[in-house]
Design goal:
Helix 7 runs parallel beside helix 8 and helix 10 runs parallel beside helix 11. This protein has 13 helices and 39 strands. The radius of gyration is 27 Å and the shape is globular. The chain folds into three domains: about 325 residues, alpha-galactosidase from lactobacil brevis (Beta-galactosidase, Chain A, domain 5, Distorted Sandwich); about 300 residues, Aldolase class I (TIM Barrel, Alpha-Beta Barrel), CATH 3.20.20; about 80 residues, Immunoglobulin-like (Sandwich). The strands form seven sheets. Strands 6, 7, 8, 9, 11, 12, 14, 15, 19 and 20 form a ten-stranded antiparallel β-sheet that branches. With about 750 residues, the protein is an alpha+beta fold. A hairpin with a 6-residue loop joins strand 33 and strand 34. Bound molecules: alpha-D-galactopyranose. The site of alpha-D-galactopyranose (GLA) has 12 residues, from loops.
């Protein structure tokens, strides 16, 4: 059993293969956090609890003579505002009488087999778990009798995968309306830890670059208020031992499954205790809970690993690939595509597209994707968004005829859409100006000449569902790229009364999830790739609906090394949209070899985004070879265990995929800072079987797993601009001469 409750000590123990999580009800009724970390073989970890009278940390009224008892110093499971805990709170609510104080005490618990689900929100799926009894759910009820609030904390325990999920459901049991001003998904306290925080920040065209910092006595906030999880701050943070490396040390990961405004607060208090609170951003948020209503927070995925950052990443990769992404796509071989965007941007007609498709066929590409510009008056990014009808001047017969012609060539067909947006210069906006988010009497912020549709409105979602369904039914479409190209502003909706405007940002996200869920249900065979100006909505929430996401609008392979490496801390290779584009690169102007571009794109979903008409004969030959190589290695790349080998991207960036049975390995290396007369690069492999033998495919040389891991593989000296190589080791029965 992965969940146990000891009545006498009131201790809950949640156990996974390598980790243990303990919490307990104390004598005041408070739900205290006791321990989260490496498995402790069933030890009751309450022995670590210590208390002392700390000045200015008050005591609950009934325990006033016990001055060591304070909400301000106890490790807590779900902190509240106003009753003596001065660290970041998870829940803040205003009662009808204006009181803002809450005090939650334990009211009961329930253990169920399997994993809970969430209505209207993405969640880690439990049903696909082979042995369902390895997944269990614990739900604990906390109550504030004076406020009339119940909070149900749910924990999904994936014992085999070292994963625990958490979510909170806040119910109004009073007869009066309650205003929630903050409703985080989780809170956790580490009383004796000294941690570094790693978060993933960036900007458009440079997403998810890891930043690691020591935690001092302050609060660090990782946040997005952009209406999207954002390019700027991914909703994934790591707390780790300051000495932790890629391969050693305690690491904890917390991934919020949410695509909108979010906030992760990490604070270190007066005595060094560390608290993390993660959930929907509270700035601009407020939610009215009528009597009997409940508010469901998004889910957080937690994992612990003592095997360093690579170990932690492995846990997240597995749960996302197997229990978040739709396994029908994550597990299968997907067609190599050619996307039209960097090939022709808005400048195309049917003839040009068909010529591109012919070239694609000759290269061995299997799917043609028509990006932006095929609908309404969309001949530039100034107009047309919202008018989801093919532009028949450019494409006579519309997508139906084009998709037929593409299929006749033996290619599958995909199409770009950006449903949540509208241009002022569009028939949709002229007919329904009130469908765009905008504050009354105020001019809205414009970004990329577009406004944001009010996804809280049922009529807007209905319009979009009809448009998208019509497109997908009329034409032969196997793939959709679902884009979102601006930060949201002016979050005011005509759909809601004045006192509910604080709900718009979250209702927007719920509206997007509802629409995506309906489309997925109606067209389950169509692969949807998420996108938001590249990776502006690269989060586990979107992955629930879209098993892959365009990683960045920056396709420069050298920049992509940093972007994809940063993304890999939380997200598996099979989720990262990655294409080979032209050289010099359109975003940076940097020239790189085609071979290196191929190696980097193979650390993702692999495809092309260039004009084949401009390729030389030699480049065409290389591309045909790349596609063959990708197909040969695809299972290993998508399904293998991924390791970051180098500590950084300079001077060498190296990574590895090891098959699940540890018999086959692919090592990829790119040199980003070449030197003359350079030292040799010796790369130490990870995750192999030390006693097995591996044959290097090109040279035929044979090495033991132990040799490759402890002695390493020495690369030949490299030359030229940004050179790279792939080293493929296959199973081998023989051995090398023993000394
Ligand atoms: C976004 C996407 C690009 C492309 C353009 C089209 O920027 O990330 O890949 O689809 O939109 O406008």
């Amino acid at each position: 059993m992965s969940i146990r409750f000891d009545k006498e000590s009131q201790l809950f123990v949640l156990e996974t293969r390598n980790s243990c999580y303990q919490l307990r009800v104390d004598e005041t009724g408070l739900l205290r956090h006791v321990y989260y970390g490496k498995g402790v073989g069933g030890t009751d970890m309450r022995y670590r609890e210590k208390s002392s009278d700390r000045g200015f940390s008050g005591n609950p009224y009934d325990f006033q003579n016990n001055r060591g008892c304070s909400a301000d110093t106890m490790p807590q499971e779900y902190s509240t505002f106003g009753t003596g805990d001065y660290r970041p709170s998870a829940l803040e609510a205003v009662l009808e009488n204006g009181s803002r104080s809450l005090e939650l005490t334990y009211a009961g618990y329930q253990v169920e087999s399997g994993k809970y689900t969430l209505a209207g929100l993405p969640y880690v799926r439990g049903a696909q778990q082979a042995a369902a009894n390895t997944v269990q759910t614990l739900t604990i009820e906390l109550r504030d009798e004076i406020a009339g609030i119940s909070v149900f904390l749910s924990y999904g325990v994936f014992a085999e995968k070292d994963i625990i999920t958490r979510t909170a459901r806040i119910c109004n049991r009073s007869g009066k309306t309650i205003r929630l001003e903050k409703a985080a998904s989780m809170c956790i306290d580490f009383p004796y830890a000294s941690f570094d925080l790693i978060h993933f920040s960036g900007r458009h065209c440079m997403e998810r670059i890891p930043e690691r910092r020591e935690l001092t006595r302050s609060t660090v906030t990782v946040e997005s208020k952009r209406g999207m999880s954002s390019h700027h701050a991914n909703p994934f943070v790591i707390l780790c031992d300051p000495a932790a490396t890629e391969d050693h040390g305690d690491c904890y990961g917390f991934m919020l499954m949410y695509s909108g405004n979010h906030k992760e607060e990490v604070s270190r208090d007066q005595v060094g205790s560390i608290r993390l609170v993660s959930g929907i951003h509270d700035e601009g948020f407020c939610w009215l809970l009528a009597p009997g209503e409940a508010f469901q927070t998004p889910e957080v995925i937690l994992s612990y690993s003592s095997d360093g950052l690579n170990g932690l990443s492995g846990n997240f990769h597995r749960i996302l690939r197997e229990n978040v992404c739709d396994t029908r796509f994550a597990d299968r071989s997907l067609p190599v595509l050619l996307n039209s965007w960097e090939a022709c941007y808005f400048d195309f007609d049917t003839d040009k597209l068909l010529k591109l498709a012919d070239e694609a066929v000759a290269l061995g590409v299997e799917m043609f994707v028509l990006d932006d510009g095929w609908f309404g008056s969309r001949t530039s990014d100034h107009s047309g968004l919202g008018d989801w009808f093919a532009n028949e001047d450019r494409l006579p017969g519309g997508l139906k005829v084009l998709s037929e012609k593409i299929h006749e060539k033996g290619l599958q067909f995909g199409v770009w859409i950006e449903p949540e947006m509208v241009n002022e210069d569009s028939d949709l906006y002229r007919a329904h100006p009130d469908w765009a988010l905008c504050d009354p009497g105020r001019k809205p912020v414009i970004a990329r000449s577009q406004l944001v549709l009010d996804m809280t409105r049922g009529d807007v979602r209905e319009y979009l569902f009809d448009c998208i369904s019509r497109i997908l039914k009329d034409a032969q479409i196997e793939y959709v790229k679902w884009d979102f190209n601006r930060s949201v502003s002016n979050m005011w909706s005509g759909n809601l009364p004045a006192d509910r405007q604080g709900e718009v940002a979250h209702r927007f996200v719920l509206g997007v999830y509802e629409l995506l869920g309906r489309i997925r249900e109606a067209f389950p065979e169509i692969l949807i790739e998420g996108c938001a100006g590249g990776g502006g909505r690269f989060d586990a929430g979107m992955l629930f609906y879209c098993p892959q996401i365009w990683c960045s609008d920056n396709t420069d392979p050298v920049a992509r090394l940093s972007i994809q490496r940063g993304t890999s801390y939380g997200y598996p290779v099979c989720t990262m949209g990655s294409h080979v584009s032209a050289s010099p690169n359109h975003q940076t102007g940097r020239a790189t070899p085609l071979a290196t571009r191929g190696i980097v794109a193979m650390a993702g979903t692999f495809g092309y985004e260039l004009d084949p008409n401009r390729l030389t004969g030699e480049e065409r030959r290389q591309i045909r070879e790349q596609i063959d190589t990708y197909h040969r290695l695809e299972r290993l790349i998508r399904g293998g265990t991924y390791y970051r080998l180098s500590q950084d991207v300079h001077p060498y960036c190296s990574w590895e995929c090891v098959s699940q049975d540890r018999s086959e390995v692919l090592v990829s290396v790119v040199c980003t800072a070449l030197e003359a007369n350079a030292a040799f690069y010796c790369v130490k492999l990870r995750g192999l079987d030390p006693d097995r033998f591996y044959r290097e495919e090109r040279s035929g040389e044979v090495f033991s797993g132990a040799a490759l891991m402890y002695g390493g593989y020495v690369l030949d000296t490299m030359h030229g601009d940004f050179p790279g190589c792939q080293i493929h080791f296959t199973p081998c029965a023989g051995g090398i001469a023993q000394v």
